[in-house]
Amino acid sequence: MYSYQYLFGFTQSVFEKMGLPAGEARQAADILMRAELRNISTHGLMRLPEYVSLWQNKRVTVTPKFTVVHETPSTALVDGGKGLGLITAPKAMNLAIEKAKTAGTGWVAVRNSYHFGIAGYYAMKALEHDMIGITMTNANPLVAPTFSKHGMLGTNPIAVAIPAGEEPPFVADFATSPVSRGKVDVYESEGKDTPDGLLQDGQGNTTTDSSILRNGGALRTLGGDVAHGGHKGFCLTSIVDIFSAVFSGANFGPTVVPTLDYVKDKAGANDRGIGHFFGAMRIDAFQTAAEFKAGMDEWIRTFRNAEPIAGQERVIIPGDPERESEAKKMKDGIALSKKSLEGLKKIANTFEIPFEKQ
Amino acid sequence: MYSYQYLFGFTQSVFEKMGLPAGEARQAADILMRAELRNISTHGLMRLPEYVSLWQNKRVTVTPKFTVVHETPSTALVDGGKGLGLITAPKAMNLAIEKAKTAGTGWVAVRNSYHFGIAGYYAMKALEHDMIGITMTNANPLVAPTFSKHGMLGTNPIAVAIPAGEEPPFVADFATSPVSRGKVDVYESEGKDTPDGLLQDGQGNTTTDSSILRNGGALRTLGGDVAHGGHKGFCLTSIVDIFSAVFSGANFGPTVVPTLDYVKDKAGANDRGIGHFFGAMRIDAFQTAAEFKAGMDEWIRTFRNAEPIAGQERVIIPGDPERESEAKKMKDGIALSKKSLEGLKKIANTFEIPFEKQ
Question: Whole-model pTM?
Fold first, then answer.
């Protein structure tokens, strides 16, 4: 077990060694540590080696220029200047929040950015301003559209954070694919098959082979086949890709520059980074804030108190498990997986920063 | 086969007999006929008896007051005054479009409304203004949240229409449940089982019994069980419910006044109708319109030209099959199902309007 404070300090040091100013190093560490606390470790410190590698390969800069290219009262297009998403995304979300203060809502599309950690981090930033937050991003092309032989879309997450009154907020933060790549990696490392209907091989046939992503296979869309609504999952993942990348002019779908060595690079010299989309809506944009908060309290209580099926304790409100995990890990500490530990030790050597044994 | 013009005229007459002014009767007929043309017959003339019944039972008025209750530069809350969704929704979408003209985007939440036909109709209204259109609505509580014994959410559709340049627009219009209630009704009327994983019985056990919705059962969320991402489907359907009903103050989730006799009415006297959510975004809100259109053309062509799996001709761009159906039915005519025909004949008798034999 490591304390939150210890890992935060270590992570901030790594970003400082990469050349980020102290404030931005702290911001980047906060995003990764929030993922650890919220038990989304696939987007936590496990990703640090990927960020270091992007920087070592000069794919990202740590002193990017943040440029507002085009705007209306409620929207803006930002060019992230090939900076880490962890630097650009917080500024873009702040811009959406500023727009919402005067226009009621604010919407910001970003290009020339890279992986930004958990989508929910930015959506939740809106909560402290009494706003609803929305985040989307595209990613490595691993998901096969309905009837496509190959992966062409990312696991493209959506996060929506909605404040309540007395109840804690509703925070949905989910990859639009049925499972994440990280989950399939875990099945593989445990020598387990992946449940039926989630993967396809290089010919588009369903498979349970957990190594298939590294061998020409792809994730299927949420829903699976057409009889089970898989074409709706395709629509959803496509919408996130278009909002994130076509709105902004970033690389879309199969042209995203991959960060995985087993995904074919179809971008060539045409690297406009990945794209994000941020939204902020004032809770008093439609009703008074008091009416809105009372309505959300009623919604949350109605679903939380629903009659559960046998063997389940309750219906889970999106955000509840992550919030409970935050409280527990902040108190009891954070256990790191073997993979995360190996990555951190390697980075500690590279940058000559001490790293305590667990 | 009936011609488009004949059925349009008949439908407009029915709405006029209900007391709608000619312009609004024409608008309402246009929405239902668009569903017929687009081969979404479950939301076409098959619904006419439901609208007549809502009117006969004094659940809706045909001369509703359309009130803007609250607004910001980019948002508005509309009270539909208990009018048919077919009357209120077009006005609300127009308001979103007007807001977008000055603020870049426009977002309108509606309460005290009722079923509005196909969500895609309104989203597509934005296209002629060089805008992206977004529509959501909640509906009869038939979908069981993850781990819930009972149906608590509607099949809550989302529609997103996005203009392109030389290519036809991208139009996704889908219930967020894996199948629609109408599809299960069709399986039942044909004496067929529903594919595994889509339905649950009154105890929450999966079933293939196509009569289960009328017997205490529920639809499952998109994805199915947790291993297949069903909790993500729950998030998605919840977001549509909150945007449509909590933003607006309409009846949400299980408190929606049902239009189906086998769904328990939990609203009691507290009937604030169902809720809708409309969005319009100028295509030049993030980039220039020319850049945006070129980007969408590239997106559409990339996916349409993707390598298909064996046995499939191509990857289908959302909106393609519906657009092809429109052209065909406008030319060849529209075949009505037995259920639609029976409903129309009954209405023809009620209102003493002639109705030709097929």
Answer: 0.97
